[in-house]
Amino acid sequence: MAKDMQIAVVGSGYVGLVAAVCFAEMGHDVICVDNDERKVAALQGGDTLIHEDHLPELLNRYRNTKVRFMTDLAEATRESQAIFIAVGTPQSETGDADLSYVEAVACEIARSINSYKVIVEKSTVPVYTNEWIRKVMERNGVARDLFDVVSNPEFLREGSAVSDFLHPDRIVVGSDTARAAAVLAEVYAPLTTGAYYTNANLIPGVCSVAAPPVLLNTSTKSAEIIKHASNAFLALKISFINAVSNLCEATDANVEQVARGMGLDSRIGPKFLRPGIGYGGSCFPKDVAAFRSVAEQLGIDFSLLTEVEKINESQKKRFLSKVRSALWTLRGKRIGVLGLAFKGETDDIRESPAIDLVEMLLAEGCSVAAYDPAAIKRTEEIMPASTTLRYASSSYDAAQDADALLILTDWQEFATLDLTEMHKALRYPIVIDGRNLYDPSVMLQHGFTYLSVGRPAAH
Ligand code: NAD
User: Fold this and answer.
1) 354, 339 contact by CB (below 8 A)
2) Do residues 26 and 44 both lie within one domain?
């Protein structure tokens, strides 16, 4: 295994922190830099900061030894051969990606560079970003042979980020020089050669002996486009099945059966054919918007993506109509809500459709008792408890005396509720499931009126 590569990861968020500990797990020495002093102090002091499976184990293994946390990007630049930029690229008002954090990092690297470095775009960035980074370096007087810019997009999913990072489907390296591609090949050699998977100290439950991932070498621009195109395609798949689920509702067909029938076709595949209340999170909404904006700027009609966004937005409104159809009027109704995170097994609430729905319910005059296994703390920061919003201590507490229970996030624990207990807790046994976690016939047997997405109602 490569043991002596010194790597810097800039940004200690969902991607940066996971990348840092996983690179250490692969044998490298890592400096993880963040300009948020409080985050760095918390990480140095033993905090994990985000809810992510297996992250605590890896932090325990490598914190302050193979992974050092600091705010000093200049020092990290000087010490490292490869610098992975993993800062945020949020959506700006125009829909474009806001690349100011990436630019700030590039400027800082330019000021401190002392020998040949590979600057790696790990953040999701639009095509041509590599050229802008190159320009920033050159404008700051850095000689062209002192650096290369590489695109190495990240495909991990929150909730299974550690496992995804160590067992990727593919590793994409977009590079325009053989020298930079060789450095990235060395970074990922523990995975691509399979050496890592023979390590006796693998994390139980995450790392088994696996087929080594494919390393796909492309041009830098192609790699940048691969990431946006992949996320846009996944969002499209979700919107497609959501539109199909609406059609199923109108015809009393069952979208689960339809999705299974479609997914068995190997050209289509079963994944991402799960209908619901729309996609959210920090990636799909902003990446679809950014990709659409790139196409627009290049004079290319990609209005297909506008439709993807439209369907996604309307899915939340349809769900609210479903709640109304079950409860008649909403003002003054007590609603139990299960789930605030944008998806299960994470505490991330960015662009969460669950939060949008809670806001819609409150605006309609409902009172809400909401429970989430990991996302309450983050939600309280943007939506404090009030006379109409209470944060519950369990699923059953959220359901207590409620006129209906809504399932808004696909946490595994919401799929295994004690239905008898839940029936007792609710004022009326009405469950409206935005994630299709239950079999309608089982819900009917337990005496619930059960509405879900794209399936005939059980009542
Ligand atoms: P995040 O907001 O969780 O973390 C970004 C971190 O960068 C923050 O800790 C912030 O303090 C730090 N930062 C900002 N400016 C900095 C600077 N100048 N110097 C040092 N640190 C700085 O973001 P994230 O979810 O980790 O996403 C990072 C990038 O990865 C984005 O481009 C995102 O689209 C992409 N991505 C995210 C995911 C995901 O599931 N979250 C998956 C794949 C790709």
Assistant:
1) yes
2) yes
Long-range CB contacts (within 8 A, 24+) of 386-391: 388/362, 389/358, 389/362
Distance 14 CA to ligand 1 centre (A): 7
> ipTM score of the complex?
0.99
CA angle 425, 431, 435 (to 5 degrees): 125
* DSSP 8-state class, residue 299: T
Note the pLDDT tens digit of each residue in 104-117: 999 999 999 999 99
**Does the annotation place 156 within a ligand binding site?**
yes
Mind telling me the catalytic residues? Answer: 283
Can you name the residues that pair with 67 across neighbouring β-strands?
30, 63
How many other CB atoms sit within 10 Å of the CB of residue 45? 10
Domain span at residue 303 reads 222-459
For the chain, helix (H) and strand (E) counts, in that order, are 17, 14
CB of 35 closer than 6 angstroms to any ligand 1 atom: yes
Residues 127 and 56 in one domain: yes
Using the mean position of ligand 1's atoms as its centre, give its distance from the Cα of residue 413 in Å.
28
Q: What is the pLDDT of residues 169-182, one digit of tens each?
A: 999 999 999 999 99
* Cα 340 from Cα 380, distance rounded (Å): 10
Angle separating helix axes 284-297 and 220-251, nearest 10 degrees: 120
Domain co-membership, 288 together with 204: no
Query: What residues contact 276, with CB distance under 8 A and at least 6 apart?
Result: 238, 242, 315, 353, 410, 434, 435, 436, 453
Q: How far apart are CA 152 and CA 172, in angstroms?
A: 6
